[in-house]
Design brief:
Blueprint lengths: L1 E5 L8 E5 L9 E10 L2 H8 L13 E9 L11 E5 L10 E5 L3 E3 L6 H4 L3 H14 L7 E4 L5 H12 L4 E6 L5 H5 L5 E4 L3 H8 L5 E6 L4 H8 L1 E9 L13 H7 L2 E4 L2 H7 L1 H16 L7 E6 L3 H10 L5 E5 L2
Parallel strand pairs: 8-9, 8-11, 9-10, 11-12, 12-13, 14-15
Antiparallel strand pairs: 1-2, 3-4, 3-6, 3-15, 4-5, 5-7
Length: about 325
C-alpha cells in the first residue's frame, strides 16, 4: 500500500512517500481502507522524535474510510461499513490501510462526508473528555482556552457551551486569527500576549474556573495566574516547544488551584473502552449539526510535508485533511 512514513527523525522533509506492507487486524482490532486522514500536531511530535516510536513509522492518529477486515471478537461492525476512527495507538492514518482497536472506531451513515469525519475523532473527543471528565466543568463556570482558532480550540469553545459554561474566552497568537476563533462559540477572543492585561476585565475580577492550555510556556504560567480559587488548569500539549513549567505543591496548596493533564493517546492505549462512548457522542453531534468542524483544506497524501509545515508555522486555521490517492 502507499503511505507516508517516518524513516528518521527531523523536519518535514524526512516524511517519505513509500510503498509498505498493509497491516492486518489482530483480535479485537479493525482494519480500515482509509480514504482521508486528519493532520494533527501530535504527528509533528512523532516526526521530530519527541515521542518514542519505532522506525520506520506510519503516522496518523485519526482516519476515516471503510472497514476492510475484522479481527476475532469484533461484533458490532461489518466489512465495507463507513467509519471514522482514532488510529493513535498503532499509528497508520497516513496510509491506505490502518489498524486500530475496535473500541476506537465509530460507525457512520452511508452518505457521510469522509473528509469531514476524518477531522472529528481527535479534537472533538479531546474537547469533550477534557472539559467534562477531567476539568469536571460545571454550569455557568468561566472557561479560558488557548489556541482558540486551532483544531482542538475550535472544538473546546463549542463543547464548553454545550456543557453549560457561562463564559468562554479564547486566545490566539496573531490578529488575523481573532475573527476566525470568534466563530467557534467564544464570547471573547483576545491575543495571547494581552491575556493578563484583559483577564480582570473579562472575568469581572473573579478569574477563570477552567483554563485549557495546549501551548505551554508563558501561556501555562499566565493561565494559572488568572484562575479563581478552585480553578483547574488542564495541560494538554506544548505547541510552543517551551521548557517545562513547574508548579510547587505548596503553591497549589496556598492558592487553592489545581493542575491536571490530559493525553488522549495514553487514555486510548490504556483504557480504549472509556473513549468509545465519547467518540461516538461527538460523531453524532457533528452529524446532526450540534458541533461544527471546519475543514480548512483537503490535500493529497503526497503533500503531508506541506501540511506539517503549515501547522508548524502557526498560520493554519481549520483542519487540514489528507486524501488517499
Amino acid at each position: 500500500m502507499r503511505a507516508v512514513t517516518i524513516s528518521r527523525f527531523g523536519d518535514a522533509e524526512v516524511l517519505d512517500y513509500a510503498e509498505v506492507e498493509p497491516p492486518t487486524p489482530g483480535p479485537g482490532q479493525v482494519a480500515i481502507d482509509v480514504t482521508h486522514a486528519g493532520v494533527n500536531y501530535a504527528e509533528i511530535l512523532f516526526r521530530q522524535g519527541a515521542v518514542d516510536v519505532p522506525l520506520p513509522y506510519v503516522p496518523g492518529i485519526e482516519a476515516a474510510g471503510h472497514v476492510r477486515a475484522l479481527g476475532d471478537g469484533v461484533k458490532d461492525l461489518r466489512v465495507g461499513q463507513p467509519v471514522t476512527a482514532l488510529t493513535m495507538t498503532m499509528g497508520g492514518g497516513y496510509g491506505e490501510v490502518a489498524v486500530t482497536d475496535a473500541h476506537l472506531v465509530a460507525p457512520l451513515p452511508d452518505d457521510a462526508d469522509l473528509a469531514l469525519m476524518a477531522a472529528v475523532p481527535s479534537n472533538s473527543t479531546t474537547a469533550w473528555l477534557v472539559l467534562r471528565e477531567v476539568a469536571r466543568l460545571r454550569k455557568d463556570e468561566r472557561v479560558l482556552v488557548h489556541a482558540a482558532a486551532g483544531g482542538a480550540g475550535s472544538q473546546l469553545g463549542q463543547v464548553a457551551k454545550l456543557l453549560g459554561a457561562g463564559q468562554v474566552v479564547g486566545t490566539v497568537g496573531s490578529p488575523e486569527k481573532l475573527e476566525k476563533a470568534a466563530a467557534f462559540g467564544y464570547d471573547n477572543v483576545v491575543l495571547r500576549s494581552e491575556l493578563l492585561a484583559f483577564s480582570e476585565e473579562l472575568t469581572e475580577g473573579c478569574g477563570f474556573d477552567v483554563a485549557v492550555d495546549p501551548v505551554g510556556g508563558t501561556a501555562r504560567r499566565e493561565s494559572f495566574d488568572t484562575l479563581a480559587q478552585g480553578g483547574r488548569l488542564i495541560a494538554m500539549g506544548n505547541a510552543s516547544g517551551a521548557d517545562t513549567v513547574h508548579f510547587d505543591a505548596n503553591e497549589l496548596w496556598f492558592s487553592g488551584k489545581g493542575v491536571l493533564g490530559f493525553n488522549l493517546g495514553a487514555l486510548s492505549g490504556e483504557r480504549p473502552s472509556a473513549v468509545t462512548p465519547v467518540l461516538r457522542r461527538v460523531v453524532d453531534a457533528v452529524l446532526d449539526g450540534g458541533l461544527r468542524v471546519e475543514v480548512g483544506e483537503v490535500l493529497p497524501l503526497s503533500d503531508a510535508a506541506q501540511a506539517h509545515r503549515r501547522i508548524e508555522s502557526g498560520r493554519s486555521t481549520g483542519k487540514l485533511v489528507l486524501a488517499m490517492p
